[in-house]
Each structure stands twice: as structure tokens, then as C-alpha cells.
Specification:
Layout (H helix, E strand, L loop, with lengths): L1 H39 L5 H10 L1 H11 L20 H10 L1 H36 L1 H8 L3 E3 L3 E3 L2 H37 L3 H54 L2 H28 L2 H6 L1 H10 L5 E5 L6 H22 L4 E8 L2 E8 L13 H10 L3 E5 L6 E8 L4
Parallel strand pairs: 3-4
Antiparallel strand pairs: 1-2, 4-5, 5-7, 6-7
Helix pairs in contact: 1-2, 1-5, 1-7, 3-5, 5-7, 8-9, 11-12, 12-13
Length: about 400
């Protein structure tokens, strides 16, 4: 408690005193500009002055946000947006349409006509009166006879003066904490009117997060639809075409047999490529058996031998899909860039979080920002409040870790 008072009181005094130094000239400026603006409005000369009054809250708000640092708190960010066009006219038009500008103007009038006089009263009551009482012996010695303390109490002996000093000391100590509380309340009012609306920002951020999650869910649904259409449509037709070509080869004359064989091979190759494409869009093993089997299947397809240690329950489709494609991208990068001879894949679900790690014995030095494809996967995990990190010092090993908070099915 004492340490807090010793720390907060000087800051509070500096904050309130600087408020007086800002508020007193601000009141005079508002009165002059407002009076002249209203008086000269009939001849249109006053309109620019009234516009200046309306925009006066912008610089005052910026100054007041800086003054909040005197209390040891950070400077709030400005609530204004950047104009889309350069120039003073575009800036003024934007500012006059922002609610933040009018909140700043309201605070400017409060500061100019109400808050700084209150600051004076608080400083005088909390410091001036106790200080006058504590200085009673000095005042009595200067006067040489009797003196009035704080223009209220007449004393003429040093005993009375010492009693005033003791009273002033007790009163000062008693009022220091209320002084700090008042300064905090003043700062809270300033932050409420001048700082961005944090509750509104949180609401917008939550809505953006939900919107991104809905987009990912819609993307996954569309991915599955395309996979299903390719599997049930184009793939079945290619299978039928391949079978037809095979049957035609049996009865074809020799001059057509080679051409039919070539067409048959091409159809089979297209079928293989289509199956790989379908698997890349949304592997059936992931939908049917879950992430554990899908990761094992991805490890089997890796160009580098992968040791798998994965034991996971079923998760929501968006979580399984994001984790699967992140691991598949990591294994593809190992095969293309790492020079590794072996890789390790581990996955666990603990404390409500899915944790997957991919490690290799390659050369290291991987840079996720150099177009490896992991940046997009990190963004996709961020929609699920997940994180993707890559640790790859020169010489290796490279370790990719992903973590997603999620429930099980």
C-alpha cells in the first residue's frame, strides 16, 4: 500500500497539474473561437472558425492520450482511420464523419470548462491546504506576530503553529490515496472517450474470426463436393473408358491394336492422376477413418521414410483437414528441400489441444517465409486459433510443430 502511494502520487500530481496547464488556455481558446465563429457566421467568415472548434478535439485528444503516460500506463492507439485520399480536405471530411472526432470534442469541452477546475480544487484540497498547515511555523516567523493559516485560522504562538504542522501532516497522508484515486478516475474518463472502443473492437474481432471460420467450413464443404463429383463422375467414366478400350483390344485387327493399346495406357495414366488429384483434394481415408490413419497414409506416400507415432481421437472436420494438409506440406518439403534420410511424425491430444510435430535429420535452414507453402497453412490454422511454428537452424534438425485447441467428436 505505502509503496503504491509513493509510486502513484507523484505521477498523479504531474497528471493533474499538466491537465490544469492544458485546460486553462484551452478554455480561453474555445471561448474566443466559438464567440468569433458565431458572431461572424452571418458573413460566412465564422464558418472556418466553427470548423476549427469542431476539429479541435483531434489535437487535444492526441495530447491527452500522450498525457496518460504520466500515470505509467501505455499510450492508447488513436481511434481514427487513415484517409483514402491525400490532402487536408479529404482528412477533414473523414474526421467530421467519425464518431471518435465527436467523442474527442466532447472531452475537449469537458476538459476546458469542467475537468481542469476540478483538478485545481483537488490539488488545492489535497496538497495546498495541508501544505499551508505544515508551513505554519515558517509563516508565523515571517509575519513576526500573528498570521492566518490558509486565510482561515488565526494563530499567534508557536505551539499553535506546531499543532497546525502536525494536523497538516496527518491530513496530507490521509489525502494522498484519494488524490491518486481521483487521478485514476480522470484517466479512466479520458481513456473511455479518447481511446478506441475496446468492447466494440473485441466484438468486431470475434465476428471476423467467426466469419473466417465459416469461410473455412464452406471451403471444406466445397472441397468435399468436388472430390465426390470427381470420384462418382469423371473417375467412373474413365474406368468405363479404360475397360472399353481393353475389350476392344481383344478383337481389334493388328493395324489398330497398337493404337488401342496406347490409348488404353493413356486412359490408365489419366485415371491414376485423377485418383491422386482426388486424394489431394480430400483423402477418403481422412473422412472415413480420421486423422491417425490419414497421417499414417501420408507418411507411407512420403519420399523420405517416416517413423510414425500418432494416437489421436476423431476431431471436427475442419481441424482434421487443417492438421492433415499441414503435415502433408511438411513431408513434401522434407522430400524436396531438406536432404534428409529419415523423418519422424508424432501426434497427441492433451489438455484439449491437438499437438502434432514433424522432424527430420536434414540440413536445416528452412525459412517458412520463402514460399514453402507453410504461410498459408499457418493462416488456416489461425482461423482455428491454432499455431504453426518451424524451428530449423543451419545444419538441422528441422522441427515443425502445430497446435490447435479443439474438442473431440
Amino acid at each position: 500500500m505505502i509503496r503504491t502511494v509513493v509510486r502513484d502520487v507523484p505521477r498523479s500530481v504531474a497528471y493533474l497539474l499538466s491537465g490544469v496547464l492544458v485546460g486553462a488556455p484551452l478554455m480561453a481558446a474555445l471561448l474566443v473561437m466559438g464567440t468569433l465563429g458565431l458572431a461572424l457566421t452571418p458573413v460566412l467568415v465564422g464558418l472556418p472558425l466553427l470548423a476549427l472548434v469542431a476539429l479541435s478535439g483531434v489535437p487535444v485528444g492526441a495530447l491527452e492520450r500522450l498525457r496518460l503516460r504520466l500515470l505509467g500506463s501505455g499510450t492508447p492507439t488513436a481511434p481514427h482511420t487513415t484517409p483514402a485520399e491525400p490532402g487536408l480536405a479529404a482528412w477533414a471530411r473523414l474526421r467530421l464523419t467519425e464518431r471518435a472526432t465527436w467523442r474527442e470534442l466532447a472531452y475537449t469541452f469537458l476538459l476546458g470548462f469542467l475537468l481542469w477546475p476540478l483538478d485545481v480544487l483537488v490539488l488545492v484540497g489535497a496538497l495546498g491546504v495541508p501544505g499551508a498547515l505544515m508551513g505554519a511555523p515558517l509563516q508565523l516567523s515571517v509575519s513576526g506576530g500573528d498570521t492566518k493559516i490558509a486565510k482561515l485560522w488565526l494563530i499567534d504562538t508557536y505551539g499553535q503553529a506546531l499543532l497546525c504542522t502536525a494536523t497538516g501532516t496527518v491530513l496530507l497522508l490521509a489525502l494522498l490515496w484519494p488524490l491518486a484515486l481521483y487521478a485514476r478516475a480522470r484517466a479512466a474518463l479520458a481513456r473511455l472517450l479518447l481511446a478506441p472502443n475496446e468492447a466494440e473492437d473485441r466484438r468486431r474481432l470475434a465476428e471476423v474470426t467467426r466469419s473466417r471460420a465459416r469461410l473455412v467450413a464452406a471451403f471444406e464443404a466445397e472441397r468435399r463436393r468436388i472430390e465426390r463429383d470427381l470420384h462418382d463422375g469423371a473417375q467412373q467414366r474413365l474406368v468405363s473408358l479404360s475397360m472399353t478400350l481393353g475389350l476392344l483390344r481383344l478383337d481389334a485387327p493388328p493395324e489398330l491394336a497398337d493404337r488401342l493399346a496406347s490409348a488404353h495406357r493413356e486412359a490408365d495414366q489419366v485415371l491414376v492422376e485423377l485418383r491422386e488429384l482426388i486424394h489431394g483434394i480430400h483423402p477418403q481415408v481422412l473422412a472415413d477413418y480420421g486423422l491417425t490413419d490419414a497421417l499414417a497414409d501420408a507418411a507411407d506416400r512420403s519420399a523420405v521414410p517416416v517413423e510414425v507415432d500418432v494416437d489421436l481421437p476423431r476431431f471436427p472436420e475442419s481441424v482434421e483437414s487443417a492438421a492433415y494438409f499441414a503435415v502433408r506440406e511438411a513431408l513434401a518439403n522434407i522430400g524436396r528441400h531438406s536432404g534428409a534420410e529419415r523423418a519422424w511424425l508424432g501426434g497427441r491430444y492433451e489438455d484439449g489441444r491437438l499437438r502434432v510435430q514433424v522432424r527430420d535429420d536434414g540440413l536445416g535452414g528452412a525459412d517458412p517465409s520463402a514460399g514453402t507453402g507453410l504461410t498459408g497453412l499457418a493462416d488456416r490454422l489461425a482461423v482455428l486459433d491454432g499455431t504453426l511454428s518451424v524451428h530449423s537452424p543451419a545444419g538441422g534438425p528441422t522441427v515443425l510443430s502445430l497446435e490447435i485447441p479443439c474438442p473431440t467428436r
